[in-house]
Structures are given as structure tokens and as C-alpha cells.
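Quick log. Single chain, no ligands specified.
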Amino acid sequence: MTTIGLRRMRPRDPAEGHRAASPLELLFDLVFVVAVGFAATNLHEIEAEGHISSAIVSFAFVFFSIWWAWLNFTWFATSFDTDDWLYRVMTFVQMAGVLVLAAGVGPAMQDGSFTIVVIGYVVMRLALVGQWIRVAASTSEYRATALHYALGITVVQALWVAILFLPEGWPRFVAPVLILLEVLVPVWSESRAQTTPWHTHHIAERYSLFTLIVLGEGLVASASAVIDGLRHAEHLGPLLVLAAGGLVIVAGLWWIYFSHEQHDHIRGLPSALVFGYGHYFVFAAAAAVPAGIEVAVSADAGEADLSHASVAATIAVPVALFVLAIWALALRPSLSVGWNTVVVVLTLAVLATIAVPEVSLVATALLVAAIVVVLEVADARARR
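-> predicted structure:
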């Protein structure tokens, strides 16, 4: 340890026992959920106005910026969390970037103005560059990997800043290219040098906790929408059905996600990339479900400019996406062909409920509950 209280940023032991999320990591997650909540709220508002396609595109882009910064911090921390004062300060800088990004979510999704989002995003990413430089200075084994990360992230951030100066309309065409470059940086960095030492149990716990927080945010948002609707509704029956159905759906998604251990699916770089990147769909779908429930509440009050089928789709589609994503990432390898087929068929049936929008919510809730039952029965038979 040096005289100014810094530790050398050496790799953590990937086999370390009882490795759990730190208080700093938990606070980090909570700050990110603020941005996720803003994104879900704006998704609901744009969907309720009848602009489904633009709502999905803007939400997908904004959510990528939130998720990608969280993912990179999480995988870095599992390998190099020294928890000294500089590490904490740099993490707080990333949190500040999240709050700036959160302030820009509304303008980005409502008006297509991404300046504030890009500024917040770049702040988060450049703070992580500083952490990678510390790694390069602290350990020769991972110096090349760290320098690849630092260089790749810095170049892409410069490009993000550059698109703010492009003529109006051009950024929407350039942004997908930059997103592709972002997701290629870890592939390039990890495959060309020493792979960083992930703690698989720690990573699985971090992903589980973030899923839990996002689903909990969904419960709060859905409850708030239903309570607000109850104040103005003349007929309580439909709102009570929405409240009950939303609770069953969120509880079922929680049950499905936590029905199987996930750490053993991270075995090397390819599986780590699939696990890490695939969770974009899990997180985004979990954040979109409460927006759909809020749209249904607005539609019940006559405040949504949507067809009944479109209202049903705002719930059924993210629910089906969540189940299919976690099935592909964690459930499929643990189930037999027969049980896998049943889960997929029930999930596709969730999408089919859009054709009968009058009962779509109830049917979706029942189908999610049926998937939970299937997983429990399959697990019980496997144990026997």
C-alpha cells in the first residue's frame, strides 16, 4: 500500500469463497435504476400516444446506453475491485454520469435530442477508462488487455461526441454503427490478450440483483398507475383485474428467472459474452413490462390512443421476450427436449393472446403461472 492510501489494482481471485456484491455495487445499481425508471415512464407515455414503433426504437437505444455502462462496470469490478478511495471516487463519477444520462432520457425519447444522454454516457465510459489505466499500471499480466480496453473505449467515446456535430437526422444512422463498435471492444480486448479473471458466482449474483431491482421497479410503477387510476375510475373491476394480473406476471417472471442457478453457464469467453450480452433482452423486457401495464391502465381510463390489440401487445411482447431470453440463457441447457418444447409453446402462446385483447392480460398471467408450474414439475422429476 502506498503513502496516499492506494492499492495496486491486482486481479481478484476468481475462486474466492463467499464473494458477494459490495455495498458500493448495490448503490451503483440503485442509481442505474433511476435511469431505467425514467426510460420506462417515457416508454409508457409515448406508447399511450399511439407511437409504438418510435417508442420501441428510442427505448432500445436509451436502454442500451444504461445497460452497457452497467455491464462494463460489473465485469470490471468482478475482476479488479480494490475498494480503495480512488476506486470509489471513480465509481461515484460513473454514478454522476448515470444521473446526467437520466436527465436526458426524456428529451432523447420524446424529442430525439440525445445530447444530454451522450454526455452522461461518455462521462461513465471515460471514468472506466481511468480504471483500466490503473490496471495496466498495476499488473503486467493483464496490461495488454487493460490497454486494449482503454484504447477501444476512448476511440468509441470520441466518435459518440463527434455525432453530436452531424447534421440533423444523421445520428440515427450512425448510432447503430457505434453500438456495434461498443460491443466489439470487449471481444477485441479479451481475445487478443489475457482474459480477465471473472468470478462466475459473483457475476451471476450481480445480474440476479439487477433483475430483481428492475422487476421491483415494475411493481412500484404498476402499483402507482393502478392507484392513480382508482382515484378517477368509475368501475373498479377492470383496474383490480389489471392489478392482480400485473402482480401475477411480475411474480411469475421473478420465479422463472430464479428457478435455476446461472453461474455454471459462464465457462469461457464465448459463453461469458452470450450470458452478458443476452441479458440486454432480459433487463429491457423487465423494464418494459410495467410500462405496458401503465398503458393498459391509461387505456382503461380512455387516455390511450391505441387499439385493444396494441394495448395487449405492450404487455405480452415484453413478457414473452423476457421468458424466451432467460430460457435461452439459463433454462434450456437444464431441461429435457420435452420440457423445453412445453416452455417455448407456452411462451409463444403469450404472444398469441394479442389476438384476443379482451382477455390478453388474464391469459398472459395464467400462461406465466403455467410456465412456473412446468419448471417446478421438471425440477422435481429431475431430482427424483
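The two ends are 53 Å apart (CA to CA).
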